[in-house]
Amino acid sequence: MSTDKVIISCALTGAVTTKKHCPAIPYTPVEIAEEAKRAYEAGAAIVHIHARNDDGSPTWSKDTFAKIMEETKARCPVMINWSTGGMGPMQDRVAHLAQRPHVAALNMGSMYYAKWNHDKKQFAFNFVFNNSFDDIVAFARAMREHNVKPEMECFDTGHTNSHRVLADLGLIEAPYHFSFIMGVLGGIPASARHLAFQAEQVPQGSRWKVIGISREQWSLAMAALSLGGDVRVGLEDNFYLPDGTMAKSNGELVAAAVELVKLSGRSVATVDETKRLLWPSGGHN
To answer: How confident is the model over 105-116, as pLDDT tens digits?
Structure first.
């Protein structure tokens, strides 16, 4: 694995936050595509996308995903990563894979997913994020069917080693592609020490990146760069630039990540370089 090149991913919108939280959050296919272009022009090779209705509510509509892909491809050649996680029937959460994005997110285990409000001494939310092995295997089969690279999202240490089931079934191909989501209450804490432990769990030659939640994003990105990993930024995870000001676009967050990459002594991977890193023998969508 080349540790010199850094793949920057950008999560454009998520499914929960609204323009009330951050005015730059995109809803419509055109808004999402414009944000994809800004992220690409700033240095992102991959954009991670949830679909929304025009009022900002989440949707699994195949037509909406198709429109997002059409609008994005019309603006830039960035690689597309569809979400499959969250609520809703499985058939709805895999139907859009038929559009053959380059990558799709695959949640790798169950957990308690919560946010604690320290000031009010109560949970802002608290639920079981259920991802059974039956579901994980079914999602991986759907991705395999459509030649989509699974981005294995790991919220805790046990999730990282769950990839061995998929490898034994022939549902994933090396180099494997991991994402470590850190800072969610109920999952692994957001620290450089915990990130280093996660990185040690992946097979040699795999690509991995960190997804830091909220303002933990920047310190974790710096840690990932020093450990040879990739990074994800974007309004889904964090609204704020390193200086604490609210970002006006995903492009601003990507630009800040690019500066960190330069300071680390590494270089940002282009779209073509990213394809070669994730599919050394070709065969991508």
So the answer is: 999 999 988 888
Other Cβ atoms closer than 10 A to 160: 23
Q: Answer yes or no: is pLDDT of 198 > 50.
A: yes
Residue 1 confidence (pLDDT) above 50: no
The span from the CA of 156 to the CA of 50, in Å, is: 22
| Nearest to 189, CA basis, from 156, 147, 235 | 156
Residue type, 138: A
Q: What CATH number does the domain containing 116 carry?
A: 3.20.20.70
- Dig out the tokens for 157 from the structure: 């240490």
Distance, in Å, from the CA atom of 163 to the CA atom of 161, rounded to the nearest integer, reads 5
Asked whether residue 22 carries a pLDDT value surpassing 70, the answer given is yes
pTM over cut 0.85: yes
Query: Residue 207 and residue 230: Cα distance in Å, rounded?
Result: 7
CA 158 to mean position of chain CA atoms: 19
Is pLDDT above 90 for 160?
A: yes
Q: Count how many domains the chain has.
A: 1
81 occurs within a structural domain? yes
